[in-house]
Design brief:
By secondary structure, this protein is α+β, with helices and mostly antiparallel strands. It has 11 helices and 12 strands. A 4-stranded antiparallel beta sheet has the order 10-3-12-11, with helices on one face. Helix 2 crosses helix 4, helix 6 runs antiparallel to helix 7 and helix 7 runs antiparallel to helix 11. The chain is elongated, with a radius of gyration of 30 Å.
Length: 353
């Protein structure tokens, strides 16, 4: 399919103006726009028949659609995307909107969750739409970690932090993992936690993996040098040590070395699995999401999400705020409000930290 930017480049000034007027009218009124209505607002004097021809061309390009045979046109999803990306004129945030948002976050409260809940309510009230606030992930030291299998492709990790904070995150576990393997991974990690953050815990596991790798290399070196063993997929995660002429190893202590290497390999694979668990845990979705409607809304046609990330003092993205509503949102007004709110939240959280 042709890119919307290429389609826009191929349109002349009249087609662009007709398209823009149709979209702006639809976003304002939610009604199909007819050719006679457009002729009264265009910058050049043209007949309704000429406008109809232009609208038919835009419909052919997939930018407009006719709800009914005799009705006017409305923008398609592709047309809205092109309008938002290329033709949207963004307003400044109105003083009254800014004051309403700022009023909810004034005060000396240090409870970030309470602060973000208020921000979500204010954003919803100002925009008259559902709001979404994704809270920042906690970075304190850990006290306990637990994995809960929900389905073959969905799991929950429960993180208990040393400051008493509890957080749940959903993630997709590595293929083949079972509830028992998850319990084993949690037990191993809880023995190493000692107040470490997730990132620090991942570093410890990385060191364990490196140590096991070096130990295996050291034990296998003599076998490989003598031609009694060879590496398969060397350097990759699924590497194996293939032993040849096992009879030649009997009575020379070789079998003990092979058993030791096999044990180290098992330990190495287990730690790799645990490292993957930690990676998925760090990247997992925060469950504490404030949404004005159910998640099903995102998969329904006729809905839009305007979202902006917010950052901490180190310019690291730690969360997001957004607005969910029908496709005919007043984007020119909503976009700057969401952007302003995200910047405000970022500043407030940086100040509190």
């Amino acid at each position: 399919m042709t890119k919307t930017s290429d389609v826009l480049e191929s349109m002349n000034d009249r087609s662009r103006e007709v398209f823009r007027r149709v979209v702006e009218s639809y976003l304002e009124n939610g009604e199909p726009v007819g050719s006679r209505t457009l002729t009264r607002s265009l910058s050049e004097q043209v007949s309704a028949a000429t406008v109809r021809n232009v609208m038919q061309d835009l419909e052919y390009l997939g930018l407009l659609d006719s709800p009914h045979i005799s009705a006017g046109r409305v923008p398609t999803q592709r047309g809205l995307r092109m309008f938002v990306d290329s033709l949207l004129e963004v307003d400044d945030v109105a003083v009254t909107d800014r004051e309403k948002i700022e009023a909810t976050v004034s005060g000396n409260s240090t409870d970030v969750t309470q602060l973000l809940d208020k921000v979500g309510s204010a954003l919803s009230g100002v925009t008259q739409s559902a709001s979404l606030v994704l809270t920042p992930k906690h970075e304190a030291g850990l006290r306990h970690i637990e994995f809960v299998s929900l389905s073959p492709d969905r799991a929950l990790v429960v993180l208990v932090f040393s400051d008493g904070h509890v957080e749940n995150r959903l993630f997709t576990p590595p293929p083949g993992q079972t509830p028992s393997s998850m319990r084993e991974a949690a037990n191993f990690l809880n023995a190493l936690i000692e107040g470490r953050t997730l990132g620090e815990l991942r570093g410890v596991i990385g060191e364990e993996i490196t140590a096991r790798r070096q130990e295996i290399d050291s034990l296998a070196h003599a076998l490989v040098e003598s031609g009694l063993a060879v590496w398969d997929n060397s350097g990759e995660g699924a590497e194996r040590l293939i032993v040849r002429g096992r009879a030649n190893l009997l009575g020379e202590g070789g079998e003990e070395e092979i058993d030791r290497i096999r044990t180290l390999f098992d330990d190495l694979e287990r730690k790799r699995d645990i490292a993957e668990f930690l990676d998925l845990t760090q990247d997992g979705d925060g469950v504490r999401i404030f949404i004005g409607s159910e998640n099903k809304l995102f998969s329904l046609s006729g809905s839009s999400l305007v979202v902006s990330p917010y950052m901490n003092a180190d310019r690291k993205i730690i969360g997001a705020v957004g607005v969910i509503g029908p496709t005919r949102l007043n984007y020119g007004r909503i976009v700057p409000i969401v952007d302003y709110t995200a910047q405000l939240v970022g500043r407030l959280i940086s100040d509190r930290n």
